[in-house]
Amino acid sequence: MEQPQHNASRRAWLTQALGLLSVAAAPSLAFAQNAAHIVIVGGGVGGATAAKYLKLFNPALQVTVIEKNPVYVKPYGSSEVLNQHATMDDLNVTYDVLKSKYGIRFVFDTVTGFDPVARTVSTAGKQKIGYDKLIVSPGIQLMYSAYAGYSEQVARTAVPSGWIPGEQTALLAKQLQGMRRGGTFVLAAPPNPYRCPPGPYERAALMTEWFAKHNPTAKVIIVDPKDAFVTDETMMLGWNRLYNFNLPEDYVKKMSAEVEVKQHAGTSMLSWVRGKDGGRTLKIDPKQMRIETEGEVIKADVINVIPPMKAGQVAMTLGLADSSGFCPVNRRTFASTLQPNVYVIGDASIADAMPKSGFSANTQAKVVARAIVEELAGRAAPEPLWENTCYALAGKDYGLFVADVFKIVDGKIARINGKGRYLPLNATPAQIKLGARYQQAWLRTFTADCFA
User: Fold this and answer.
1) Cis peptide before 193 (omega within 30 of 0)
2) In degrees rounded to 5, what are phi and psi of residue 66?
3) 3-state class of 83 per DSSP?
4) pLDDT for the residue numbered 196
């Protein structure tokens, strides 16, 4: 697809016109009819992709992104900071290319409210920015208070989550890499729904691999409110092969017809306590470094809590979330069902069978960008089709995935591929290693699709 071209005079005119918006706060009245102003709140994967593809689909559109942070910190791949495969700096992505190549305007500020009638967005910096259409990509917020004894302050200082990457990720990496010999690392997995379904189990696997080399008598315990998870069979098969992990008997029965599942003598460094076995977290004691579950109290050296999640705070501020904590949308266009001329994409949206993942946010953003362009042109949006692929690692050379295609079926977003979703259980060693290479390549190409 050809890239939009801008000469110097047009770029200067756009800059001046967009600057006037923050003062005049007028929507499309300030522009020609074919130059509507689309404002995007949130510059993560969903927001950045929507901005880029709006300009690709119609370069004449005026696109402004309001984002509180001038540098985006990638959540995908962030667990590789913990095992020293990546640095915190490797997670940083700038908006430079989106600004220079596509003419997208960025306002680094925090949204504090909006007027859906006047179609203006207000910010903490006292700006009022007008729009014709508003896309909100709020991400998630962590519900720290879901567990007794846990809070954001505790997460920042003693028992990090790091599921939204940043200072907590760096703290968790320091704790894990400095854990005493033979220490215990407990990871508290979240209930559904949550961001990045295979992620907690990949994190535990990567640390088990790291400990095997650097702290071979350490223990890794996953406590889980669930009895199953996405990629569970292929992930646990990797654990079985790499870390002498013995699968629960019901999994062995399901999988043994397709693949050999080894029964190891002794105990593994890695264990998984399911909900049915008392794995649901109840309480955190940061002073004593204890975690209480329905089944037991565990003394740990490092605790990583991934708490329940809901839509990001800006979704609450703008009245886009319902009692579920997430945002109901029109399945065809992702237009909010609660506010007019607003679209909600990414982890915050209620998207039925689609998981909360970066890939989902990316493909939703493209569908929404197309829907908005067609609506502004007076045309019907095409029938939407979405994809998702989640790559994960059971070890640095042991890759796996889940891949799906979605469409609207009976008014809901439904998965339409029944088979071939996962790496086959009988995959060859070469296929497994290739899966790990794909994961690393995807981290690069996906970021380029969103931000470059």
Assistant:
1) yes
2) -105, 120
3) coil
4) 96
